[in-house]
Amino acid sequence: MIVKRLEDLNGGASDVSADNWRSRRLLLKKDGMGFSLHDTQIFPGTETRIWYKHHLEAVYCIEGEGELEDLTTGEKHTLCPGTMYALNENEKHILRTKIGLRMVCVFNPPLNGAEVHDKDGVYPLEDSPAAAG
Ligand code: 9YT
């Protein structure tokens, strides 16, 4: 059994930040679950373009408010606590929030731990040179 506490991740290798977000990664590839599990904060006043072309992601909003734009359809969805979205077709999308968001995110395949988005909003695949470096 694996038991971790969010507060114990603070400031460590599983506490990863980029310009628009902070992700504390509770489960990673090395934990052997077949997915990774993240507690992610999206910072207030941000707009983030994302394309997880190598990963499926499910996102469950637990705090805050924002907007999700599906760039494949042009549809916009309000995000608030209790909203879940799943990028089951690797959809390009934009996350916007004025007040910030807190989300629980699940990635398949799991992240190794230190990934941040590249210029296209992509996470590299785990075994690619970008992921290794
Ligand atoms: C919701 C989302 O995709 N935010 C970007 C960070 C990412 N989910 C992560 O690594 O936790």
Description:
- This protein has 133 residues and is mainly β.
- The chain has a single domain (13-112), classed as Jelly Rolls (Sandwich), CATH 2.60.120.10.
- It contains 2 helices and 10 strands.
- The chain has a 6-stranded antiparallel β-sheet with strand order 1-2-3-10-5-8, with no helix packed on it. A 4-stranded antiparallel β-sheet has the order 4-9-6-7, with no helix packed on it.
- (2~{S})-4-acetamido-2-azanyl-butanoic acid binds next to strand 2, strand 3 and strand 10.
Structural descriptors:
single chain, 133 residues, mainly beta, Jelly Rolls, 6-stranded antiparallel β-sheet, 4-stranded antiparallel β-sheet, 42% strand, globular, binds (2~{S})-4-acetamido-2-azanyl-butanoic acid
Taken together, the total number of domains comes to 1
Major beta-sheet overview:
6 strands, antiparallel
Q: What does the average pLDDT come to?
A: 91
Give the helix/strand class: mainly beta
Give me the number of helical elements: 2
| pLDDT < 50 runs, ≥5 residues | 129-133
What small molecules are bound in this structure? (2~{S})-4-acetamido-2-azanyl-butanoic acid
Task: Bin the helical content.
Answer: under 10%
Question: What is the ordering of alpha helices and beta strands?
Answer: HEEEEEEEEEEH
Describe the global form: globular
